Amino acid sequence: MSNSPSVLELHIADAKDRPMVAVDSVSAVAGRGLLGDRYYTGTGYYSDIAGWGAQVTLIQSEAIQAVNTGYDTDFAGSMLRRNIVTQNIKLDSLIGKTFRCGHAILRGTKPFPPCAHLAYLLGRKEVLKCFAYCGGIGADVVGGGDISVGDSISIIEPEDGG
């Protein structure tokens, strides 16, 4: 097992409130998001909200595991309605950075704590507290390409000043 940053799971939902479906591979389209996902088609719960700030959402598998252990919960990546579950990378380090995810190029936009709508869909308001500081990040697709489970993730933009 590699310790390299990579994609552990991929999920899309074709419309708001529809279940997230695990996929092995998905096409990321620049300026749109993931082909077949609710935000790509403009049918997501927040699609009409100015400043939503993400065409794709990511969450760390380690955060899910830590919450499940610390709070004795059973959250899974698909339940949290994030598109990409990662491993071996601190997602906050990608905010404001351009990075390669598989063959796509993404740019981290902002932290994405869980919302009240997610708590409503799950019927579990504890998700708000549990993931308040580790709910993942949003990203925009700046260069299209396929993303597959197992693909590597790497920053392609040098740090400021370096």
TrEMBL record:
Output the Gene3D superfamilies linked to this UniProt entry: PK beta-barrel domain-like
Q: Which SUPFAM superfamilies match?
A: PK beta-barrel domain-like (SSF50800)
Q: Which Pfam families match?
A: MOSC (PF03473)
Task: Name all MOSC domain ranges.
Answer: 21-156
This entry's Gene Ontology molecular function terms read: catalytic activity; molybdenum ion binding; pyridoxal phosphate binding
Q: Which InterPro entries match?
A: MoCF_Sase_C, MOSC_domain, Pyrv_Knase-like_insert_dom_sf
Tell me the protein's name: MOSC domain protein
**Lineage of the species this protein comes from:** Bacteria, Pseudomonadati, Planctomycetota, Planctomycetia, Pirellulales
